[in-house]
């Protein structure tokens, strides 16, 4: 097993909370992580029809099977279990007794967050980060090959054809799981919506335009986006609203949490195709946002990511709000660094003043250096840079 940066935080939470919920998209390694971190707990998967039926029809009897707690995998498959789990936890609040996993963030479901409030600590697991990927690969690939293949453990670390793997992933998990939650009958309409969402990666979310192009209503588009987000597939990056005397954008920007899946949905066939694709910059930007979120998830969220844009078109791709300090980050897919690439960072630093503690440009190169007061950071060091900016966010060193 490849050691996951998030494991140290998971173990810390389990020393405080009676239950920890590991949520994230399918195939990100939730089960492997849970079983590795808590080898002493019995394991049961609610994907198994017999265990799922038991949990649904007799939740009290099901939980009584595990007096010392357990790992309950894909627990969202038996939603009635949560109310009974609340009672069990209130009777015995020993920390780390229950480890829950779910490919849909069940803590966002109506009533669940209320019944488990104060009893369960959520933690999100995303696909591999660059450091984890380096441990898994014998030889480092170029940025375009790496980003095209993506960071899900299986396609990133095996010889499986990436295009075939993602085709099966979409058919098995995205179409099946997400459609089952949404109760979508028309598969072709849903698939068109998913691909159109991918084509808008890195852009402001315009639900009206997305709905029209997909042939659905705007409320339906909003519902479908919410489920894609809760399923760990996309991130809605909110705008930062610090008042610097400018009218600011209010819509979020949408990103996909894995660039391999994004490239598949955009029909980018290989790394060479990515190099000349119109979405090259958006795909690279999506990588930087995902890598940042992975680092913050491992730290416990000591800073929150945003983007910043004013009505005049000035913008910063990523803004880390660490309270008194703001850290501005730009991602550029150009391997040649020119002065105009820093224009957005310089404008923001000028109006934010002392609150802007640092400015960073992430690019697909290999050298780290400083230029005109801005840090220039290679793509592989995105997580390292975020860790250096946010105190306490660095993961525990792996042995």
Radius of gyration: 21 Å
What are the segments in which pLDDT stays under 50 over at least 5 consecutive residues?
393-399
Cα distance, first to last residue? 13 Å
CATH architecture of the largest domain: Orthogonal Bundle
Biggest sheet strand line-up: 8-9-10-11-13-12
Shape: globular
The CATH topology assignment of the largest domain is Arc Repressor Mutant, subunit A
- Count of DSSP H/I helices: 18
What kind of sheet is the major sheet? 6 strands, mixed
Mean pLDDT, rounded to whole units? 90
Classified by CATH, the class of the largest domain is: Mainly Alpha
Total beta strand runs: 13
Helix/strand-derived category reads: alpha/beta
**Helix content bin:** 40-55%
Indicate how many domains the architecture comprises: 3
Beta-strand share of residues: 15-25%
Topology:
Layout: H1 7-13, E1 19-23, H2 30-37, E2 43-45, H3 49-57, H4 59-64, E3 70-73, H5 81-91, E4 98-102, H6 112-115, E5 120-124, H7 130-136, H8 143-149, H9 153-157, H10 162-182, H11 187-199, H12 207-214, H13 218-230, E6 234-237, E7 253-256, H14 259-265, H15 271-276, H16 280-299, E8 304-309, E9 315-321, E10 326-331, H17 343-352, E11 356-363, E12 369-371, E13 374-378, H18 382-389
Parallel strand pairs: 1-4, 1-5, 2-3, 3-4, 10-11, 11-13
Antiparallel strand pairs: 6-7, 8-9, 9-10, 12-13
Provide structural commentary:
With 399 residues, the protein is α/β, with parallel strands linked by helices. It has three domains: 7-124, Rossmann fold (3-Layer(aba) Sandwich), CATH 3.40.50.300; 130-289, Orthogonal Bundle (Arc Repressor Mutant, subunit A), CATH 1.10.10; 297-389, no CATH class. Helix content is 43%, strand content 16%. It has helices at residues 7-13, 30-37, 49-57, 59-64, 81-91, 112-115, 130-136, 143-149, 153-157, 162-182, 187-199, 207-214, 218-230, 259-265, 271-276, 280-299, 343-352, 382-389; strands at residues 19-23, 43-45, 70-73, 98-102, 120-124, 234-237, 253-256, 304-309, 315-321, 326-331, 356-363, 369-371, 374-378. The strands form three sheets. A six-stranded mixed β-sheet has the order 8-9-10-11-13-12, with helices on both faces. A five-stranded parallel β-sheet has the order 2-3-4-1-5, covered by helices on one side. A two-stranded antiparallel sheet has the order 6-7. α11 (187-199) packs across α12 and α12 (207-214) crosses α13 (218-230).
